[in-house]
Amino acid sequence: MTNIRSTLATVWRIAVPYFKSEDRRMGRILLATVVVIELAVVGLAVLFNRWNNVFYNALQERDYNVFAYQLGYFCVLAAIFIALKVYQLYLNQWLQIRWRRWMTERYLGEWLHDSNHYQMQLQGDAADNPDQRIAEDTQMFVERTLLLGIGLLNSVVTLASFVVILWGLSNEAPLHVFGQDVPIPGYLVWGALIYATIGTALTHWIGSPLADLNFRQQRFEADFRFNLVRARENSEQIALLRGETAERGKLSSRFGLVADNFMRIMSRTKKLTAFTASYSQASIIFPYILVAPAYFAQRVQLGGLMQTASAFNSVQDSLSFFVTAYRTLAEWQSVVARLDGFEASIRNATAQRANPGISRVVAQSGDAIGLDDLELTLPAGQPLMRADDFRISGKQRTLIAGPSGSGKSTLFRAIAGIWPFGSGAIAIPAGATIMMLPQRPYFPVGELHAAIVYPSETAAFSAAQVAEVVKDVGLPALADRLGEHGHWNRTLSLGEQQRLGVARALLHAPNYLFLDEATASLDEPSEAALYRLLDQKLPDTTIVSIGHRSTLNAFHDRDAVLGRSGDSFTLQDKVRTVAPAQS
Predict the structure, then answer these.
(1) Regarding beta strands 422-429 and 397-401, do their DSSP bridges make them parallel or antiparallel, or are they unpaired?
(2) Which residues form the ABC transporter domain (predicted)?
(3) How far apart are the C-alpha atoms of 116 and 349, rounded to whole Å?
(4) Taking residues 151-155, what's their average pLDDT?
(5) What is the pairing mode between strands 512-516 and 434-437?
(6) Which region, left, alpha or beta, applies to residue 381 given φ > 0 means left and ψ of -120 to 50 means alpha?
(7) Which residues lie closer than 8 Å to 550 by C-beta, 6 or more apart?
(8) How many CA atoms does the CB half-sphere of 417 hold within 13 Å?
């Protein structure tokens, strides 16, 4: 019971915000319309139930006039029923897509807000495969919530409508045992209740493991897809290493988890289906068994028998909602749990960002980035590096070196404001713009023009401006392909991508430019040409580079090194023996 209350509370927390959002008016109208139509459908079911009595009595009495009239009446009811169901489906789907669009936009906004997506990866939160949460689970949540909600409403209203009818029919068709009437008020209602209660209890006992199995199945499926995508994106490296056999083994192992868990679902579903199918078939004949003795004793006509059976099945179906919807409920519960974990991960990332160990302050004067008593740690708390009273002055060119794993790239992340683990303060000059160029640049799929100017809008830079910088960085052949669509991280070599990364920096002209081995895939002459280009085009930009080539010294006027200090590293200035020769 506690688990049910917890799930319902989570559903309320996830679902209600849409109906309070800017789209609340249309959402409420659509939901209210769908509900009203469902109530009308239940009303028609009551009319169909009464029609059963009259129609089958006409058959028994061979009354052709009543028979013909009831056929026409049935056609009218059926036409209304069809129209209601068609428009209910249409409006339900309209509500689904509006609700899903709002949830998708909300989750995208929260996930991509202020590097939450990166924080969630660092923290190793339970929201594995956020793409699945946003793309698939929102769709399943909206669809299942409406399906189950409307289904439950139908069951409650149908029960309220037909239980009165069935109670009255219990008096018209009394329980007849061994030639005697047994006066049990509402015995048909009690029979339906007992039948449904037993069925519900057995269904839950058989099917309860399905919720957890479905949760794990979605996770295993997503992990398998993720590894397939990784294999596709890294196909060149796999081919060069002749890693196909190893990769196939890894993928087969991942799929093995999918298949093994699916076999468990199959086994459990087989047992559940065997019971629910038996339950459903038995429920068809059960009311006839109860009423047939009274019919053969001529205590009730054929019409009364058929009406009673119809009313009994309506009540029994309503009471058996849990039985018939159990598999959907199990899937829905696992979807709710996944979305709850996703939202919790976003909240954790937001809380981490709101209370970081590292203070990020705005320097009201000066043009230097200051690192004051800065200590960076790994997410688990192990010390990584320190920087005490270290200044990166305006227009200065600083080259940072250090052994692998000493925290060079992590320092850049901290300056960018996306690494929260540690203590101390980072002071950023007021109004300063910062750009980071990683070793592997990111280019969104689409037009090359848009990929180069990212994250700015395409209109922020003209085609002529983009073409000029593309030529400047040594890629004249791409200047004529700016309108071409492509997956540029795949089609371009890493060296070409790094050149375009520099082109992006030239367009945006930031106050501070941090290059994390951003030219390491180029030969030394090409690297030197790009640094000379940066000096020429961005004379007022402060440049900080991470690199290991001695040839980079000529393009920097300051050296810093991360040296071993106990169990971590310390950032310090390094005295040069030879002054840089700018060229």
Answers:
(1) unpaired
(2) 369-581
(3) 6
(4) 93
(5) parallel
(6) left
(7) none
(8) 17
pLDDT (tens digit per residue) in 273-306? 899 889 888 888 888 887 887 778 777 788 877 8
* pLDDT at position 107 over 50: yes
Question: Across the chain, which distance is largest between two alpha carbons, in Å?
Answer: 117
| E-state strands within 122-275 | 175-177, 180-182
DSSP labels, 309-325: HHHHHHHHHHHTHHHHT
Cα separation, 497 vs 475, in Å, equals: 10
What string of DSSP letters covers 348-410? HHHHHHHS-SEEEEEESS-S-EEEEEEEEE-TTS-EEEEESSEEE-TT-EEEEE--TTSSHHH
| CB 510, CB 435: distance < 8 Å | yes
Identify whether the C-beta of residue 504 lies closer than 8 Å to the C-beta of residue 452: yes
Q: What is the pLDDT of residues 396-407, one digit of tens each?
A: 999 999 999 999
Distant-in-sequence, close-in-space partners of 535: CB < 8 Å, separation ≥ 6: 555, 582
SS3 per residue for 41-93: HHHHHHHHHHHHHHHHHHHHHCCHHHHHHHHHHHHHHHHHHHHHHHHHHHHHH
End-to-end Cα, the chain, rounded Å:
76
Tell me the whole-structure pTM to 2 decimals: 0.78
Cα 428 from Cα 509, distance rounded (Å): 17
Decide: helix, strand or coil at residue 462. Answer: coil
Tell me if residue 461 falls in helix, strand or coil: coil
The rounded distance, in Å, linking the Cα atoms of 406 and 404 is 6
Tokens of 62: 């061979």
Q: What angle do CA 537, 540, 542 make, to 5 degrees?
A: 105
